[in-house]
Amino acid sequence: KAKVFIIATGGIENARLLLLSNKIQKNGIGNSYDQLGRYFMDHPHYPRAANVVFSNTPGNLDKYDRSKNKKGVAALGFTDKMQQKNHLLNTAMQIIPKAGNSYELLNAGGAIGFFDALRTGQGRGDGPFFVELQMISELNPDPNNRIFLDNEVDRFGLQKARLRLKLTKQHLYTITKSIELFSVELAKLSNGRTRIEFLEDDPTKNYFPANHHSGTTRMSDSPKTGVVDAQCKVHGISNLFVAGSSVFPTIGFANPTFTIVALALRLSDHIRPILKRSKL
Questions:
Q1: CA end-to-end span of the chain, whole Å?
Q2: What is the pTM of this model?
Q3: C-alpha to C-alpha distance for 247 and 214, rounded to whole angstroms
Q4: How many CB atoms lie within 10 A of CB 70?
Q5: Cα 142 vs. chain centroid, distance in angstroms?
Q6: CB 45 within 8 Å of CB 254
Q7: What are the distances in angstroms from CA 195 to CA 32, 46, 56, 100, 200?
Q8: Torsion of CA 137, 44, 222, 235, to 10 degrees
Q9: Between 277 and 31, the higher pLDDT residue
Q10: Cα–Cα dist 120/113, whole Å
């Protein structure tokens, strides 16, 4: 029999496997305080959050053009000072250049809703150039966003995972406020007037998940607030560890792969002497 066990099956399956292990602990392993599966996080991605219209061509935007930068494109964000001042979560924005005019866009009606005042203040203009604004933003941890076991079973007769997820108020505020601040800065920097046109009254209708499942076995100092400790060991169990993004207490805005690999290497360094002592 193995002396050490590591669960490393992803941000959803890690929680599901622990929840399914309920023969001895009826709520699942590592779930003494109903923390297992909670705090699910992902990166909501808004591929077309808004259109930015310039009254004059803003200059060379090649560094934002994927077709001209095979190794990556530039992204925009806010300084720490700006984030703190405006109470923003972490966010990255990319502008996607679109060549030529768009008659429909330039003559679009008032489809902005809460942004009407800003648009009016900046003027409408008949801009010859526009870009699409893409956004990816942090989703702050919320215990009500969670993985739990469904009544439906898989081909092995085991209950499937079910997700309950709702975008948080802080996230929604971050999206709308970020676009507002971004448009103001563009107006200052561009050669002419700019305006923002949301493609929906509610820009969140445009989002899709990035599938960066995280947070469901979160790292914490206490089993009352999470599932694993600082060494990724399940609280209360000496030889059970969890690897992967499910241990993230927060998610930021960037892709999680680098952090997942770093934590895996850190966990292997921690477990190596344990295995030597066990003569495995």
A1: 10
A2: 0.83
A3: 7
A4: 7
A5: 13
A6: no
A7: 52, 18, 12, 17, 15
A8: -130
A9: 31
A10: 12
Provide the token pair at 136.
Answer: 């990816």
What SS3 class is residue 217? coil
Token look-up 């060379």 returns 60
Pair 175, 135: CB distance under 8 Å: yes
The rounded distance, in Å, linking the Cα atoms of 225 and 218 is: 8
Beta carbons of 64 and 97 less than 8 angstroms apart:
yes
| 7 to 25, 37, 113, 186, 191: CA distances (angstroms) | 17, 14, 47, 47, 55
- Has residue 194 got a pLDDT over 60? no
Short-list 37, 56, 51, CA closest to 102: 51
Q: Where are the domains of the chain?
A: 5-41+212-278, 44-141+168-209
Give which of 121, 137, 130 is closest to 76, Cα–Cα: 137
- Out of 3.30.420.40, 3.50.50.60, 2.60.40.1880, 3.40.50.150, select the CATH number for domain 5-41+212-278: 3.50.50.60
Q: How do residues 56-110 score in pLDDT, each as one tens digit?
A: 665 566 666 666 666 777 788 999 999 999 999 999 988 776 654 343 333 333 3
Question: What is d(CA 161, CA 149) in angstroms, rounded to the nearest whole number?
Answer: 5
Q: Determine the Cα–Cα distance for residues 72 and 67; give it in Å rounded to an integer.
A: 10
**Model pLDDT for residues 124-153, shown as the tens digit of each residue:** 444 456 777 889 999 999 999 999 999 999
Query: In the numeric block, which tokens belong to residue 160?
Result: 């499937």
H or E element that contains 11:
none
